[in-house]
Amino acid sequence: MSxxxxxxxxxxRSVNDGRKGxxxxxxxxxxxxxxxxxxxxxxxxxTPDLVCFSHLRWDFVYQRPQHLLSxxxxxxxxxxxxxxxxxxxxxxxxxxxxxxNLYVVVPYLPEGLSSEVAREAVLRKLVDRLFSLHDINDxxxxxxxxxxxxxxxxxxxxxxxxxxxDELSAFKGAHPLLQSTERELFERCNLVFTGGQTLYxxxxxxxxxxxxxxxxxxxxxxxxxxxxxEEPEDQKNIPHPRLGFFGVIDxxxxxxxxxxxAKARPDWQFVVIGPVVKIDPATLPAHSNIHYLGSKDYKQxxxxxxxxxxxMLLFARNDATKFISPTKTPEYLAAGKPxxxxxxxxxxxxxxxxxxxxxxxxxxxxxxxxxxxxATPDAECSLWLKQVDNFLADMSWDETWQRMSRLIxxxxxxxxxxxxxxxxxxxxxxxxxxxxxxxxxxxx
Length: 444
Description:
Blueprint: H1 3-6, H2 10-13, H3 24-41, E1 49-53, H4 64-72, E2 78-81, E3 85-87, E4 92-99, E5 102-110, H5 116-133, E6 139-143, E7 159-164, H6 178-188, E8 191-194, H7 197-203, E9 210-212, H8 219-223, E10 242-246, H9 255-264, E11 269-273, E12 290-294, H10 301-305, E13 310-313, H11 328-334, E14 339-341, H12 345-352, E15 358-359, H13 363-374, H14 378-392, H15 397-443
Parallel strand pairs: 1-2, 1-6, 2-5, 3-5, 6-7, 7-8, 8-9, 10-11, 10-13, 11-12, 13-14, 14-15
Antiparallel strand pairs: 4-5
């Protein structure tokens, strides 16, 4: 067999196997028909799946990942792979479909699997099993935690996205390798999205394609608070004025400020909604005018907001809050509630600068800001609310996802074009090689 013949791909050379004396023209036409068919097949596939690796539980708090990925699932399959749960059971993957096209994947590992190297090896096998069972072939990788890179480096996505919603390395209990792993993720990903402007400014020099996507809003959902008439049972008997907060209560929560203001104004009632994590609940101030109502479903939040006189953003000023962009800022405003916030940079810019939110860090300033709100005449409140509505008019999670999606589609298209060009070049080389074989066959 000639070396030229050996170089013809099997799918092309099979038409001539055992037919050494074949007519060169017929052979060439047969090869060309096969090659042209392969060229025609090199078209972009259907919308690729999206596989997300997240440090946040899907059922924990409804926030940025839920808003974005539920919209992504309208046009593609979405798999949200959570961090593993350790128990006494067997090694397994729990895959549950939460809505059309959206699947939550929870790896379960045995408690005795203490070695980090062993955990990564097992998680890699489980991820491979997920891809195999669900026929995940063309896909986009979406990371919320860089630490997942340790067991997903072998995957070959059409595009990789890092939605950097917080500076995770500044959080309590952050992995010591998080910063170095994030640098590695920057080298691998096509796109970096940031959850706020301050975070964008910190990351924009670390990757050539960083895009700021600050917290957005489901206006219609929270606007229900403006017309709600029936209050939840656990809130309706709390006297007014009510100052409310909803969100995760962790090391970012300004416990001291809440304690001081509640003591200074026992006639005000403070409603706090949300789970307590990473801090001891016993450290929270316990005064008769502070009401901890626990976690609430996202659908219930407008009903609670409707009964508040002032909404609060009680964030401490520390490393964990330096880069945050609270989603609840536009949510409070969409509910029509005046807001007092500590000086979180992404709240000061733009909400504080435009007079939409009052900024106060000290006990005295916070009390004065609330007093001013409570004394504001109705006509002035109406003007403020009109200003709020004008500001929020162009904000929506739908618009945010559409902008993100266009960037992802462009990255995927670029990858597919490059792959198609390489495949076409291979086929053309095969045609040229096959022509040489045909000429050789005609001469023997």
